[in-house]
Every structure is written in C-alpha cells, then in structure tokens.
Amino acid sequence: MNKRYVVRLTREEREQLEGLVAKGKAAAYRIRHAHILLAVDADGPNWTDTQAAEAFRCHGNTVVNIRCRFVEQGLGAALERKKQDCPSRPPVLDGEGEARLIAVACGRPPAGRAKWTMQLLADALVALNVVESISPKTVERTLKKTSFGRTCGSTG
User: Fold this and answer.
1) Distance between terminal CA atoms of the chain?
2) Are 122 and 139 in contact (CB under 8 A)?
3) Angle at 48 between CA 24 and CA 12, to 5 degrees
4) DSSP 111
C-alpha cells in the first residue's frame, strides 16, 4: 500500500524525538506522537499505520493525521494536538460583557450586602440583559481571567 505522507526524519529530528521519549517529562500525547513518528519513519522501522496504531493503542486515523501534520507543517505541529478551527462552544461573555461585569463588580453591592458574591454578580448580569443566563462559576472564571481582585479601590 502506497502511503500518501511519507515520514523521513533527519538525524536532528530523530535525536530530538528520542530525547523526548527517553526523558518522559512531556505530556503523554506528545510522547505518544514522538513514538509514532519514530516508528513510521521510512528510513527507520517503517511500520504501517495499522502496526503503529495497535502498538501505541490509538486509532489508525491518529497515525495518519500525525503523518500528515509532520509532512505538511513540520515536527512541531506533529507533536502538538490539532487546534480547533472554531471553538465548539462560543464564550458566554464577550469583551463588552466582561467589561460590564467588571463595572458592576466595581460598583456598590446591593443594599444589605457588604460585598458582591458570584451569585449576585450573575443575577445582576441577567437583570441588566447582558446575558440570558450565566452561572456563578463562569463569573468567577471570567474575573479570575481578567485578574480582577474584588476590591476596586486603591491597594497602595
């Protein structure tokens, strides 16, 4: 069977992959991708896609995709996971929504409260028609992402 994407590793690439595998200090998927590239190298063991998939317990398409990324984009792309073309779920808050969240959080808390809670902020965003619904955990993650410290006053 003729392979469409033939992997031919240079000496430097082979040494880099062998070093990555030997250390074992990388993400598991990177180490597996390195093993696969070393196994399917045309100048090395030259395993078939099926042999590599069985040996490294992955799907045959994974081996094909790693070959393809190596030939078309290089070693770095082959070791990494494929980036999504578009996220599977759009963010709940866009930039404008995040700005509104921070503005609300910097304002005075509701009457009878000493400070904002995540639930109060989520309810406020819904009341202001920024979003239809939002969980307190999403509010917390957004504030953490923006390095917001829940105290808008001067700290110095």
Assistant:
1) 70
2) yes
3) 45
4) T
CA–CA separation, 138 vs 129, rounded Å?
16
Q: What span, in angstroms and rounded, lies between the C-alpha atoms of 111 and 73? A: 58
Domain ranges of the chain: 11-79, 95-145
pLDDT of residue 155: 41
Describe the crossing of helices 95-106 and 136-145 by its angle, rounded to 10 degrees.
90
150 contacts 105 by C-beta, under 8 angstroms = yes
Q: Which amino acid is at 33?
A: H
Query: In this predicted model, what pLDDT tens digit does every residue of 105-120 receive, in sequence order?
Result: 999 999 999 999 999 9
Q: Which two three-digit tokens encode residue 27?
A: 């993400």
Q: How many CB atoms lie within 10 A of CB 26?
A: 14
pTM: 0.62
Q: Which long-range contacts (CB under 8 A, 24 or more apart) does 68-76 make?
A: 68/4, 68/5, 70/5, 70/7, 70/37, 71/5, 71/6, 71/7, 72/5, 75/13, 75/16, 75/17, 75/37
H-type helices in 25-117, by residue range?
28-40, 49-55, 60-73, 75-79, 95-106
